[in-house]
Task: structure prediction
Amino acid sequence: MIYVTRKAHFNASHRLHNPDKSDDWNLKTFGKCNNPNWHGHNYVIEVTVAGTPDPDTGYVIDLGLLKRIIKKHIIDPCDHKNLNLEVPYLKGVIPSTENLCKVFFEQMKSDVDEVASSNSKLYSVRLYETERNFAEYCPKS
Amino acid sequence: MIYVTRKAHFNASHRLHNPDKSDDWNLKTFGKCNNPNWHGHNYVIEVTVAGTPDPDTGYVIDLGLLKRIIKKHIIDPCDHKNLNLEVPYLKGVIPSTENLCKVFFEQMKSDVDEVASSNSKLYSVRLYETERNFAEYCPKS
Amino acid sequence: MIYVTRKAHFNASHRLHNPDKSDDWNLKTFGKCNNPNWHGHNYVIEVTVAGTPDPDTGYVIDLGLLKRIIKKHIIDPCDHKNLNLEVPYLKGVIPSTENLCKVFFEQMKSDVDEVASSNSKLYSVRLYETERNFAEYCPKS
Amino acid sequence: MIYVTRKAHFNASHRLHNPDKSDDWNLKTFGKCNNPNWHGHNYVIEVTVAGTPDPDTGYVIDLGLLKRIIKKHIIDPCDHKNLNLEVPYLKGVIPSTENLCKVFFEQMKSDVDEVASSNSKLYSVRLYETERNFAEYCPKS
Amino acid sequence: MIYVTRKAHFNASHRLHNPDKSDDWNLKTFGKCNNPNWHGHNYVIEVTVAGTPDPDTGYVIDLGLLKRIIKKHIIDPCDHKNLNLEVPYLKGVIPSTENLCKVFFEQMKSDVDEVASSNSKLYSVRLYETERNFAEYCPKS
Amino acid sequence: MIYVTRKAHFNASHRLHNPDKSDDWNLKTFGKCNNPNWHGHNYVIEVTVAGTPDPDTGYVIDLGLLKRIIKKHIIDPCDHKNLNLEVPYLKGVIPSTENLCKVFFEQMKSDVDEVASSNSKLYSVRLYETERNFAEYCPKS
Result:
């Protein structure tokens, strides 16, 4: 098994807030991350595809194609945007790092699997909210 | 001359917007950085003090004291905040990286100079908006 | 499965030395790492919790709580300390990176599992001794 | 299970080119990576050994020995070299990151397993072509 | 004075070789950097503009414009290229890091000065050949 | 003026302690950095030479020679050592980052100036004690 990873980044604002709960619950649970005036991050995303290299190219996936898929599904909708208000596929999702990397994985899944080498698939999405906090969604592990 | 630097970081939302200009001018000038729903960054700040080490301590400045000054003037007011709306000393300042590092310098100047070794002074403030974009204010250079 | 990681760091002195062996054996086996006058490192620790996000919070674990657990069990006892002489739970442990990350895992296990979301658990501890040398303890893998 | 990793780096030139295919196919498939005048990278390699620490040393593997094995098999033959023309064991291999990390693993396997602690083995080789693109070969996973 | 910096990167092959000297002199002087089969690097460039922010924008220079100038003069001609053979403005230049950053500065000078805020100018170009070796050209210092 | 920099690293133990002062003064002044059982760091040193490239080589200084000078004066005496007890030229020096970078500069000065290109000289030494704390000695500035 070979794992190939492509890294990208975007800047966005967000807040952690569960609209089904009271303001008190939200403030107590999320603290400064609940700030109604938003805060933001330089997000770094790492997208990993696992499989066997194509014998003609030596590629598990053409990283140029993977870069375009990340741009289409992640960078274009999220960069310099408000993750709570402006990203259609995040509607109703609390934008914790955990939830974001799962939704990002699902957004890219079919496009990645279609262009990856035969028997290669999207394997995981890792998202750094800061250099010190990150999450990874890896459904096969 | 010896230069001593302390690094810190905070996360904030902002937008580039000049309220004295039309919305069209702002959109054309600042592009996606003008998004009315905000975007955000993991800011990294480097604060440099220049001078001669105190012979008793070997310190140009006690970095523990410098850390506290950065916390008081930068981290506490700005972390997880909206730089346009929530930081009193940024009122009326377009929060470009250039402007921020100048204002941050002025905020910390007297506190730093007071605790630095004799003939040591605040020298510069560098601010990274992203890993790829940064500004430095260095009035003596 | 989602993996959430929090990074922290501390500075410490240590030496590699097995007191059950001769000085010759120690010097031959550990070389410069056996220096009786100690050497030291800026250690970086990454603590990973694996599980399912809580539907109310989107959290596998509240990273503020995880930060406090790392502070209590790792940073407070080890930072600016001598790992061979001053950390009670390292008594009798040769402080190789391998051994340290296993002991750190065991120290934090019950506290982490108690505050993590239901069906989330401490998964691994990675410790960087330098940027070029690191070890990871991951008992489930 | 404990995983121990050693990082190293080398600089080399290469091009992606499949000599069994036409020039057109190569240009279309590999784009600018097919440049007949070569391009190059600062490669970073991470070599991971998995096992149980030796009770006398606390080592899964002596990292000094691992460093020497990486030097012998990777750095000495590849550093400041042309990967397509000058590395005997890469003859006939399209030097994609995927292929390189698999061949590097196979080159080092027997030497690493011989000096690792009992029941410890070479586990994976990760190769960064750039900070944004990397591949990992991990046959056991 | 405020300094604003934009970072970019490109990958290229090169060799150090002075065609006016003998092969023996070249090999003795440049060692492995003289390899006739080339080697390569992931170059990182930092371009710094110094001046006063425009009061309407808060910008010393619009970093979007600076990014385009770097792309036009550095990334497009050099990325995935052979610096000795394929970059017209490097003809006759020994591509040491020192020489490269000076030539890059001169290439960009007039375009940068034209779009920078009034009384702002191109100040320096720093070029990393590897993470451990870099040069900076700063004619005003 | 062109500035060329070479980076290196070493690991050492130390404590901040002024033997001319009381234990109370030392503890109050240096806090946890005064620990009599030592602590330690992964130090990173950046050595900068300034001048004009030699027209035959394109070099301000041959970085291979600079690497050897750093090894002789800094890495060999300091790596895996106790900076207070084991480095002859640090005898009587309080090993603050400020003091260390000044002494390191003076140690290397004549050797660097001897091998640098004509009219090139040692310019500065920057020393990182941690990623967040660093000092730079630059006598000409």
Summary: Residues 2-137 of chain E form a domain with the Tetrahydropterin Synthase; Chain A fold (CATH 3.30.479.10).
